[in-house]
Design goal:
35% of the residues lie in helices and 17% in strands. The strands form 2 sheets. Strands 8-7-6-9-10-11-12 form a 7-stranded parallel β-sheet. The protein starts with a strand and ends in a 13-residue tail after the last helix.
Length: 314
């Protein structure tokens, strides 16, 4: 049997399927990591990773016979892809299969935040309706949606947003000259021209803290921030400050820097919608992601090309 090292939590159905054909070694929370690697390291030929937990360069380089890292996620910032590819190790991820669900949640946030849906539910449940009507929300029709990162998910959200009558613009490091949406040269320019700013770019060091205090100030006191990408993209203390001081109108967030920890001050804010990283959390999508992880692993060890390799990062 081929030995695989599991470094991230995976759905039970995927673990059960893999265990029928491979020997899995649990490295999610090992009691003695060095002892485990001393015992099985030379036999490990593949790693099973996740979007929030993947192998670093030290682990990758310690496994002398490593051939493939298959990540249960579309994002691959938790894995040191550069270190892997420098050694000729294949890295795969699960794009496309979760685009629809992530875009659906992002669009839901775009509708919920201006209309104050989360606050309205608490208003009703707390009995405040008995004392009078809630203050007004803001319509989304005719508003300007700025998208940071017009990749698969950004484009999917844009298509949904057009149906609701929003005007779309974007900022991306890649040229998108064939699109009708307006492109802005900087994130600050995009934020200043947006009523709602959606974060849809990749995570990782290159985008860490990209949405900072200056960007939030450009978005302005009537603007809303939406994030279903990676928590690290936003300067979280700057966001808390902007929300507290009324420098933006509100936010809807599915991801956080340091999750599952969420700032207590943010938890207490009425104008913030918070969900526990559920953008791809449907039975259908998780099954499709698991199937793709398996298919990539199986294809590689059957001597076939993997289905969804991570693009070269070197």
């Amino acid at each position: 049997m081929i030995d695989l090292l599991q470094v991230s939590q995976l759905p039970p159905f995927l673990v059960e399927r893999l265990e029928k054909e491979f020997r899995l070694h649990d490295f999610v929370n090992p009691a003695d990591p060095d002892k485990l690697l001393d015992e099985v390291g030379p036999q490990i030929r593949g790693i099973l990773a996740g979007g929030m937990k993947g192998p670093n360069a030290n682990l990758i380089n310690r496994l002398e016979n490593l051939e493939i890292i298959s990540s249960f996620s579309v994002g691959f910032d938790a894995t040191d892809v550069v270190a892997a590819q420098a050694r000729g190790v294949i890295v795969t991820h699960t794009p496309e299969v979760l685009t629809g669900d992530v875009a659906d949640l992002a669009m839901t946030f775009i509708l919920m935040a201006p209309r104050r849906i989360g606050e309205a539910q608490r208003f009703l449940r707390d009995g405040k309706w008995l004392q009078g009507r809630m203050d007004l929300g803001t319509t989304v029709r005719g508003k300007r949606l700025g998208i940071l990162g017009l990749g698969r998910i950004g484009k999917a959200v844009a298509r949904r947003a057009e149906v609701f009558g929003l005007h779309i613009a974007y900022h991306d490091i890649k040229p998108m000259g064939d699109l009708l949406y307006r492109s802005y040269p900087t994130l600050g320019d995009l934020a200043a021209a947006s009523d709602i700013l959606l974060v849809a770019c990749e995570g990782g060091q290159a985008t860490a803290g990209l949405v900072d205090g200056a960007v939030l100030d450009a978005l302005g006191p009537d603007g809303f921030l939406i994030n279903a990408a990676r928590g690290t993209i936003i300067d979280q203390p700057a966001l808390v400050s902007a929300l507290r001081d009324g420098r933006i109108a509100g936010a809807a967030l599915d991801v956080f820097d340091g999750e599952p920890e969420v700032p207590a001050e943010m938890m207490a804010m009425e104008n913030v919608i918070l969900t526990p990283h559920i953008a791809s959390s449907t039975h259908e999508t998780r099954r499709a992601m698991g199937d793709l992880v398996y298919d990539n692993i199986r294809a590689h060890f059957d001597g076939k090309p993997v289905l969804t390799p991570v693009p070269p990062q070197i």
